């Protein structure tokens, strides 16, 4: 996809604005709607944005005025129960039907030409998918940014492990029509509250969504009724999928893209999917510096990207979109954009790098190392650490951003396995896995693995990470505890990345048992999450011998040392 450097935009001409228009849902609830459109008469393509975060915030007003000056009617709407809209806010529950009722309203507007596109990120992207599965013929294009695809797989749970810090923040801020102020709370204290199932009461609240999320700890009908998985075959819409390597729901954008490419309702839908991935967290395209500086190339003109997509699909302008490669991604370390004809890249070579040590990989002074040789019988070794939920290994300071990992890696509950300094740059682009052979003294516990780019000065730049709660190792629908002392093969999905480990750098695999407060603490009891009052310490063992070859599986592009 053609991209340009970031630049500021201003409206090119005055636009007509109308605020707080009451669009009635089928049950009579008023959905507060603002409209920005050209002052010229006639019918225009529509860009619809539905949000729980105020349709009158700075970004919505700016977007509305700029795109209206470019010839679009921009319709921004508060979702049910939020800000100026009526009704109650039940997250991820009413968005499809309310979106469809809004489309019906748009059919009758004299300024609409009947062609509708949607854009937005996170919740603003999820509402697009909820509407798309209902197949309104007016919906002709989507720009889905940082979107989850399945709430139990890559949103509020990550393959069964409960997201914690962001969930507390989000459910509190949205627990009313208006955004709530988190300064009322000591968040560090709140995050350690026990029993965790009463955390809403500890904040002086009674939150419906939290009670449901904690009640449904398997991938049951509550989550499956809200997933888009299994429904992509109902969708016939060209979609531009945008995410970042550090987006905390990045897997959702990849899942949407891959599933639309293979199961979209029509050949046209399957063909017309594009993917754009930058070196960004959930707040995309906001900065070029996340721990390290990726350079000004990391920031793109996102308004221009959206305008080109909508100009082609809503206005029929032949601007080259149809002839451009469908995958555009940023290679960290090279700090440059690349284009590809498919994802995953056909040239990526799955390569196993094995964990080794002399029995003490703990901390940064440990003896863990990483190479391409399968462990042999003479080096049969176990690394051990204690995981104490009362003192969990911490997430980065900026929870979903790639801050220097060294302070957490120095701890005795972190195992570190480093390659030798690289003799040549090694590019890893694609999906990363870590296979661990592990046992625990607990009946349930967590394991975390992280891929880290270690600079010559020691700076530890996290590249990708994953977590597994052991009871979900075989099934998300029917979890089973583990037997203490038994060795299990655990496969951790670290999702996706693209990073050049430069010459002289080291590739590190870090293993621990918590990533807190990003994910909830496993209290090691085997009880449902949220019930424990007391944490139990678990003795963890990682095996790397001929029979138990723990390893990282990296998609390496081009030549490497391995």
Describe this structure in words.
The protein has 562 residues and is α+β, with helices and mostly antiparallel strands. The protein has two domains: 15-160 and 217-340, Rossmann fold (3-Layer(aba) Sandwich), CATH 3.40.50.1820; 348-557, Jelly Rolls. The protein contains 13 helices and 25 strands. A hairpin with a 5-residue loop joins strand 20 and strand 21. Helix 2 packs across helix 3. The longest helix is centred in the middle third of the chain and has 14 residues, at 250-263. The chain is globular and about 80 Å long. The two termini are 32 Å apart. The mean pLDDT is 96.
Structural descriptors:
Jelly Rolls, 562 residues, single chain, Rossmann fold, 10-stranded mixed sheet, alpha+beta, 7-stranded antiparallel sheet, 25 strands
Protein topology:
Blueprint lengths: L14 E10 L5 E9 L5 E8 L6 H12 L3 E6 L16 H13 L4 E10 L1 H10 L6 E7 L5 H4 L2 E2 L2 E2 L2 H9 L13 H5 L7 H4 L5 H8 L5 H4 L14 E8 L3 H14 L3 H5 L1 E9 L7 E2 L1 E2 L8 H14 L11 E5 L4 E5 L7 E9 L12 E3 L9 E7 L18 H4 L5 E4 L7 E15 L5 E9 L5 E10 L18 E14 L4 E7 L25 E7 L6 E7 L5
Parallel strand pairs: 3-4, 3-5, 5-6, 6-9, 9-10, 10-13
Antiparallel strand pairs: 1-2, 2-4, 7-8, 11-12, 13-14, 15-16, 15-25, 17-24, 18-23, 19-22, 19-24, 19-25, 20-21, 20-23
Helix pairs in contact: 2-3
Main sheet makeup: 10 strands, mixed
CATH class of the largest domain: Alpha Beta
CATH superfamily of the largest domain: Alpha/Beta hydrolase fold, catalytic domain
Compute the average pLDDT: 96
Residues in β-strands, percent: 25-35%
Number of domains: 2
- Overall 3D shape: globular
The total count of strands amounts to 25
Strand order of the largest sheet: 1-2-4-3-5-6-9-10-13-14
Number of helices: 13
- Radius of gyration in whole Å, from Cα? 24 Å
Q: Please estimate the helix content.
A: 10-25%
Give the CATH architecture of the largest domain.
Answer: 3-Layer(aba) Sandwich
Distance between the termini: 32 Å
> Could you name the CATH topology of the largest domain?
Rossmann fold
Low-pLDDT parts are none
Structural class by sheet pairing and helices:
alpha+beta
